[in-house]
Design a protein that fits this description.
- The protein has helices spanning about 20-30, 60-65, 80-90, 105-110, 115-120, 145-150, 170-195, 205-210, 215-225, 260-265, 280-285, 290-300, 305-315, 325-330, 330-335, 380-385, 390-395, and strands at about 10-15, 35-40, 55, 60, 70-75, 95-100, 125-130, 200-205, 240-245, 250-255, 320, 340-345, 350-355.
- The chain is about 40% helix and about 15% strand.
- The strands form 4 sheets. Strands 5-2-1-6-7-8 form a 6-stranded parallel β-sheet, sandwiched between helices.
């Protein structure tokens, strides 16, 4: 067990979410030391427990990837007693995260921001939904792929010579919403430290995904022109894209300044390009991009990708092989940075997941609890609330827990 202090020690988080955005946020709060209690449906739990295969032992690999450092409490909030337990938990909580999409559903159960903050004025109440709780689309069901579609990002993703839009291969809107929730919660906790006030935070997948369009939107605001799909080409820097080498493998080249351009030409044996007026500056290279790429593509077929990368790295030219995921996770730098967490799970054995990426010098992330089995901590949490063993048994008989 680490002897480092935990940055969020003493903070209790009630997470009543499933799938990805909310669990992702709550996992990181747990990594930073919060006591995260995950509320799950009796019998079935978080829907991602059934998103399998693959399994690790008897557990969904998807669920395991986003639910460490949490305690699982199964609760039927459709019952009066189940809802009473949840309200009692919220009275002890610092943060409540929910992804119920409709405010009417929250109000019906007394879980809306107004009711929760009236009961517990120091609470940070966080909703993560597809479209938020205001505006014409409030209450619509939302999924990551809808946010990608409506944000403008799918229209820009994929090869430049095809019309078909491409979904980003990981659920980017979900994870981004989770990260915005994390940042917002930390900011709200800081505000509470100064003022004693809790508050409500309304996060949508759509706006979170639109946030990725910052520089593209900046260009649109400046020109009024709809941006076009560019494939792997950068709109304002060149050469800055993948190239294929003699062995068929691709590597990335990122020439982001004139100094790098000069080093690049010298180290790969293309010094004559420095005297070619078509390529004198980055704006010139952009104007003559096709001609430059024709030269580079032919030149790079003379050696294997690893040879080019080693040559370029020695000259401090930014470049890299394009990794497959197994290569990424076995890269010595990634390993040295501690990016893979290994935990012992009671039914799945050794479980690996990706670490919290930031590195704190005084309060590092800690990985105390493996992802919980469904309802694993129900009795423990209810005892903490003062319920007797007899009452807990009665609640279980009634299907409340």
């Amino acid at each position: 067990m680490s002897t480092h202090p935990r940055i969020l020690e003493g903070i209790r988080v009630i997470e009543m979410t499933e799938a990805l955005a909310g669990p992702y946020c709550a996992m990181y709060l747990g990594d930073l030391g919060a006591d995260v209690i995950k509320i799950e449906r009796v019998g079935t739990g978080d829907q991602s427990r059934r998103w399998a295969p693959p399994y690790v032992g008897d557990q969904s690999a998807y669920f395991l990837s986003t639910n460490r450092n949490k305690r699982s409490l199964t609760l039927n909030i459709q019952t009066e007693e189940g809802l009473r337990i949840l309200h009692r938990l919220l009275d002890t909580a610092d943060v409540f995260i929910t992804n119920l999409p409709r405010m009417a559903s929250l109000r019906k159960r007394g879980l809306d921001p107004e009711a929760c903050l009236q009961r517990n004025p120091r609470l940070i109440h966080v909703t993560i939904t597809g479209f938020g709780h205001t505006g014409p689309y409030a209450g619509r069901p939302g999924y990551d792929i809808l946010a990608q579609a409506m944000s403008g990002s799918m229209a820009l993703t994929g090869p430049a010579d095809r019309d078909e839009p491409y979904r980003f291969p990981t659920p980017l809107a979900d994870m981004t919403a989770g990260l915005y929730a994390l940042a917002s919660i930390l900011g709200a906790l800081y505000h509470r430290e100064r003022t004693g006030e809790g508050q409500a935070i309304d996060i949508s997948l759509l706006e979170s995904q639109i946030g990725w369009m910052t520089n593209v939107a900046g260009a649109y605001f400046a020109t009024g022109q709809r941006p076009s799909r560019r494939g792997n080409d950068h709109p304002t820097i060149t050469p800055y894209r993948p190239f294929q080498a003699r062995d068929g493998r691709y590597f990335i080249l990122a020439v982001g300044s004139e100094a790098i351009w000069q080093r690049f030409c010298a180290v790969v044996g293309l010094e004559h390009l420095l005297d070619d007026p078509r390529f004198a500056t980055n704006p010139d290279r952009l104007q003559h991009r096709d001609a430059l790429y024709a030269i580079l593509e032919e030149h790079f077929r003379q050696k294997d990708a690893q040879e080019w990368v080693e040559c370029l790295q020695k000259a401090n030219v930014p470049c890299s092989l394009i990794y497959h995921l197994d290569e990424t996770l076995n890269d010595p730098h990634v390993r040295a940075r501690g990016m893979i967490v290994e935990q012992s799970h009671p039914s799945a054995g050794q479980v690996r997941s990706l670490a919290f990426p930031p590195h704190f010098s005084r309060t590092p992330a800690q990985y105390r609890l493996p992802p919980p089995r469904l309802g694993e901590h129900t009795d423990e949490i209810l005892r903490e609330l003062g319920y007797s063993e007899a009452t807990i048994a009665d609640l279980r008989d009634k299907g409340v827990i």
